[in-house]
Design a protein that fits this description.
Arc Repressor Mutant, subunit A, single chain, alpha+beta, 260 residues, OB fold (Dihydrolipoamide Acetyltransferase, E2P), 5-stranded antiparallel beta sheet, 3 domains
Length: 260
């Protein structure tokens, strides 16, 4: 007899958080996977159709479930046919909301072109990360369980990010793709030294703002592309406005976001 095992138990007072789950719906492969599970009744089949691994498909469902705060799938284990998965009413509602949001988004974007449309495409992304750099995926290299992503800024400067293989699959990363590279300001060290550090990114520019603090202050650096990068300098860095400077930050500190 099949055993139903929903991913999350919810009480009578639980309220779905569809707004959170759909915050990046237009670019979210997780929504596609949930839709495919609903169509096929199978996580493994949905993974094959979406072109991701079985593990990545479950990661997608688990993440959406956490964001929504309610069970989106009911899983039947064993029994005739080997079991399967079906959407809960909350899962159906989430997909319906995603369809309506995408239709409304496309209707609005059709009224604008060029830079306005590009800027609007990223307005749904809200994060505490102050550094958000538009760039293009140049190459991907599998390294064990991780993928090293080579990113190119619009001035040709290169930076790298390390993400899990499952995250790369769910984002659908590929060469030529436009993405955002995100990084916390606290992860960026700004100094005058340009000595490279293995596993770190190094970007050059000039200081546009600097705060004075005994333990080191916040520094804004303008890159040659005109992009702004915010980080922190060490004590007695000697940095002043208009000085040449370098920004150093680990590859693992770079988060990739897909907005379109």
């Amino acid at each position: 007899m099949p055993v139903h095992n929903p991913p999350m138990k919810t009480g009578s007072h639980s309220k779905p958080s569809y707004a959170v789950a759909l915050s990046n719906a237009p670019a979210d492969k997780r929504i596609e996977i949930l839709r495919l599970v609903g169509q096929s009744g199978s996580i493994s089949q949905a993974a094959r159709e979406a072109g991701v691994s079985y593990k990545a498909a479950w990661q997608a469902v688990d993440t959406l479930t956490n964001l929504a705060g309610v069970a989106l799938l009911v899983r039947a284990v064993g029994g005739f046919g080997g079991g399967g998965a079906s959407l809960t009413p909350a899962g159906e509602q989430l997909l319906d909301a995603a369809r309506q949001m995408e239709g409304a988004r496309l209707e609005v974007l059709q009224r604008f072109t060029g830079g306005a449309a590009q800027a609007l495409s990223g307005t749904g992304l809200r994060t505490s990360m102050r550094n958000q750099l538009p760039c293009t995926v140049e190459a991907l290299k599998r390294q064990g369980q991780a993928v090293r992503v080579k990113l190119c800024l619009r001035d040709g400067a290169i930076l790298h990010s390390r993400v899990t293989h499952e995250s790369s699959e769910l984002l659908g990363l590929h060469s030529g793709q436009s993405v955002l590279a995100l990084c916390k300001a606290t992860a960026v060290k700004v100094s005058m030294s340009d000595e490279p550090v293995q596993g770190s990114n190094l970007l050059q520019g000039f200081v546009t703002r600097v705060s004075r603090a005994a333990a080191g202050g916040e520094v804004a650096v303008e890159l040659s592309s005109g992009l702004q990068l915010v980080g922190f300098s060490g004590p007695d860095s000697g940095l002043k406005k208009r000085d040449s400077a370098v920004a150093l930050f680990d590859e693992s500190a770079v988060v990739i976001a897909v907005t379109t």
